[in-house]
């Protein structure tokens, strides 16, 4: 009688929870990763509303194929099954998302659905049993046995859907509650144990220990996914070069990078390191005078790329050729000075021998000093030789250029039997620290240098760098001083027209301008200092965060000074391209560019550390990279195996690689095709964000839209942030254009534009 009086609303309240069903579906649409938390727990039949069951069934189907369950893909799937209108159309999907703020409690909601589902099944069984009881022909004792059998069968049919499963979810919620202290968690668990009347030993062995292990596995899985994302994000990360460099410099660099299919950030890093070795040693940027916090412009940098990935041509174009021209000019000056010196020393020796009375009057400073050649870069030297060069030319910085950067470190202390302090010298020279050395060969016996700013640049292979990084702790912060760019393996295209871009005239003039700047002490403008303080404070918080690894603590600590170094060099590049001496004040747009660069470099080194030790995240990232190199076509485990290094092959099987495929599909990074040994992995077209088909390099920076006047720059402290700066006005002509002009004498001449300065094109 009571059952007959129940309304449909009563049934919803007791036999179903439609709100929980909506929150589960909304969570799945809101967060495509959420379905992974309930896929093995929840089935379509657990939903009371048929429309809800249909949506969940399709979401489950997409998930098992490795696809995401976002709004667009779910709508497409429902349309293809011709059930979109039956469930209420696109508006219904939007309603589900709008009602969901988070997918955090999705497992708890699943437990509620399972509980109601079991009630409905028990109700159906009760109704069926009641009808059989009414039949007088049935034996009561046989009915009892049938009832026991059916109830037992009911439990066996839903082994993972019982109250025990719901109890598991309650325990998990208590253990994962961030608002409870450890003591409060223990109290809550004990209250639940007593309520369920479970013995202490059984509670610990059957419930707590398995659940804690499961949560630990989930945490490890999340950590692996997070590390994999960091590696992939760093590989895909890019900067808008035209918002960092003057247009007349960014344009040819981008074109050259496009032809060679190299990341423009590689060229930018080479440029910055090359420029950083041209300043007067005493040039500096005072960031905070009260704290005596200042930086010198010198930088340590490198390109991390596989062998034959065009590191050498890049270094040659950006540094070797232009600096070699300056060095040749310096050699001519030195030869003239040496010739004058020979004449003077010969005269001095003659007078010293034959005319001592007039010697002092002719040579009041004593014996003429022999000139020393001025150099702009060197490729090999001992620490002592570097100090000697600074001593002979205290007005000049130096660039240590090494095609294979590993040679810089393998050669340390080579001439001292391994007992020198070359590494410590490099650490202090990065900071521009002075040197006071006692030296027997020196005239005074002392070498006293106020500032020794050394710059370093070169290329290095990923495996070699990993070996140098060792355990990854970076105890003395050596690697935190370097700015690295990772260049993946890509194919360049040789054009029939030769693709002629000659950066050399442009770079020679730029480098010569900067080398000619006087000793300067720069300061930040008020707005620039405000932006810097925001980034500085964020770096400090990252440095002390419990989630920050030891090597990254060093990186964030050094980022504070790196921002200043980058800003100083960008400031000088900007004004050198205008043919002007830079003003003392560095503006906000420059400091914001420097912050974006520092964050970019931090992400690069973090992903390098993530790939240490042939870790699982590193191997998962290798699968993604290989798939992209294969134009996102499906790859097999054997394809991946052949691409791995010899050391990894020794410890990995094709079966394990197929396990990597499954992990990546579970992360939503791609989908799996086939079964068993025929299992393949691929990246769907909608997932491959780097699959360009417009003749641009895979990792090239996008063409920026010109922002409105006085656009504000926000969020400058976030890693990976690309600041929006107003670009320099573009010239009317482009590189490769044929132009004509009239000379001062009235003659007409023609030529091809190879580059730009702010005043005229290079022909």
Automatic annotation (TrEMBL):
Segments forming a coiled coil: 324-358
Domain of life assignment: Bacteria
Alphabetical list of InterPro entries matching this protein: DNA_heli_DnaB-like_N_sf, DNA_helicase_DnaB-like_N, DNA_helicase_N/primase_C, DUF3987
Keyword ATP-binding set for record: yes
Example GO BP: DNA replication
Pfam families in alphabetical order: DnaB (PF00772), DUF3987 (PF13148)
Ranges of residues in domain DNA helicase DnaB-like N-terminal: 16-113
Biased composition (Basic and acidic residues): 685-708
MF terms (GO), sorted A to Z: ATP binding; DNA binding; DNA helicase activity
Bias-annotated ranges (Low complexity): 709-718
Gene Ontology annotations for the cellular component aspect, listed alphabetically: cytosol
Assigned keywords, A-Z: ATP-binding, Coiled coil, DNA replication, DNA-binding, Helicase, Hydrolase, Nucleotide-binding
Disordered as annotated region, ranges: 683-718
Keyword flag DNA-binding: yes
Protein name: DnaB domain protein helicase domain protein
Organism: Gloeothece verrucosa (strain PCC 7822)
């Amino acid at each position: 009688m009571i059952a007959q009086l129940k309304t449909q609303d009563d049934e919803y309240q007791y036999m179903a929870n439609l709100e929980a069903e909506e929150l589960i579906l909304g969570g799945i649409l809101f967060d495509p990763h959420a379905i992974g938390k309930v896929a093995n727990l929840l089935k379509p039949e657990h939903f009371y509303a048929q429309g809800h069951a249909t949506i969940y069934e399709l979401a489950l189907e997409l998930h098992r194929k490795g696809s995401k369950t976002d709004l667009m893909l779910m709508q497409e799937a429902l349309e293809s099954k011709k059930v979109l209108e039956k469930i209420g159309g696109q508006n219904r999907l939007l309603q589900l998302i709008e009602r969901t703020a988070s997918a955090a409690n999705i497992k708890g909601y699943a437990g509620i659905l399972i509980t109601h589902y079991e009630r409905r099944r028990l109700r159906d069984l009760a109704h069926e049993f009641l009808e059989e009881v009414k039949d007088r022909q049935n034996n009561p004792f046989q009915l009892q046995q049938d009832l026991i059998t059916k109830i037992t069968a009911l439990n066996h049919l839903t082994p993972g859907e019982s109250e025990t499963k719901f109890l598991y979810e309650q325990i998990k919620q208590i253990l994962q509650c961030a608002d409870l202290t450890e003591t409060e968690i223990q109290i809550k668990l004990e209250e639940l144990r007593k309520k369920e009347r479970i013995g202490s030993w059984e509670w610990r062995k059957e419930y707590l220990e398995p659940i804690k292990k499961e949560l630990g596995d989930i945490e490890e899985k999340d950590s692996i996914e997070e590390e994999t994302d960091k590696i992939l994000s760093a590989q895909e990360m890019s900067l808008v070069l035209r918002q960092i460099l003057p247009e007349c410099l960014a344009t040819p660099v981008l074109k050259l990078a496009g032809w060679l299919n190299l990341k423009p950030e590689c060229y930018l890093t080479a440029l910055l390191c090359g420029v950083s070795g041209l300043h007067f040693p005493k040039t500096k940027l005072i960031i905070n005078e009260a704290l005596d916090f200042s930086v010198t412009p010198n930088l340590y940098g490198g390109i991390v790329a596989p062998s034959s990935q065009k590191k050498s041509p890049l270094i040659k174009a950006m540094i070797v050729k232009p600096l070699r021209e300056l060095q040749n000019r310096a050699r001519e000056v030195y030869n003239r000075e040496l010739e004058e010196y020979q004449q003077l020393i010969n005269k001095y020796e003659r007078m010293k021998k034959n005319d001592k009375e007039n010697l002092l009057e002719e040579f009041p400073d004593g014996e003429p000093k022999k000139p020393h050649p001025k150099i702009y870069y060197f490729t090999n030297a001992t620490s002592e030789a570097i100090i000697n060069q600074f001593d002979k030319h205290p007005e000049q910085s130096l660039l240590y250029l090494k095609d294979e950067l590993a040679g810089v470190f393998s050669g340390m202390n080579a001439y001292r039997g391994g007992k020198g302090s070359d590494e410590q010298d490099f650490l202090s020279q990065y900071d521009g620290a002075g040197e006071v050395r006692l030296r027997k060969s020196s005239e005074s016996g002392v070498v006293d240098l106020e500032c020794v700013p050394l710059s370093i640049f070169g290329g290095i292979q990923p495996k070699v760098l990993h070996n140098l990084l060792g355990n990854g702790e970076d105890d003395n912060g050596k690697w935190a001083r370097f700015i690295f760019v990772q260049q993946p393996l890509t194919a360049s295209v040789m054009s029939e027209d030769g693709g002629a871009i000659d950066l050399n005239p442009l770079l020679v003039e730029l480098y010569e301008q900067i080398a000619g700047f006087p000793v300067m002490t720069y300061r930040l403008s008020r707005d620039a200092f405000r932006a810097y303080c925001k980034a500085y404070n964020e770096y400090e918080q990252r440095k002390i965060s419990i989630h920050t690894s030891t090597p990254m603590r060093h990186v964030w600590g050094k980022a504070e000074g790196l921002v200043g170094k980058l800003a100083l060099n960008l400031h000088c590049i900007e004004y050198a391209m205008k043919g002007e001496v830079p003003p003392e004040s560095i503006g906000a747009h420059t400091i914001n560019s420097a912050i974006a660069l520092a964050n970019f470099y931090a992400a690069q080194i973090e992903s390098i550390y993530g790939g240490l030790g042939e870790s699982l995240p590193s191997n998962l990232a290798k699968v993604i990279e290989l798939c992209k190199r294969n134009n996102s076509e499906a790859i097999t485990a054997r394809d991946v195996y052949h691409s791995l290094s010899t050391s990894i092959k020794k410890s990995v099987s094709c079966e394990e690689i197929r396990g990597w495929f499954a992990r990546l599909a579970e992360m939503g990074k791609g989908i799996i095709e086939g079964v068993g040994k025929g299992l393949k992995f691929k990246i769907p077209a909608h997932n491959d964000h780097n699959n360009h088909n417009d003749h641009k390099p895979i990792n090239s920076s996008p063409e920026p839209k010109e922002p409105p006047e006085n656009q504000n720059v926000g969020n400058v402290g976030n890693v990976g942030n690309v600041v929006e700066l107003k670009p320099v006005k573009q010239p009317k002509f482009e590189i490769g254009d044929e132009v004509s002009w009239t000379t001062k004498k009235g003659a007409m001449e023609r030529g091809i534009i190879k580059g730009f300065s702010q005043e005229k094109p290079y022909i």
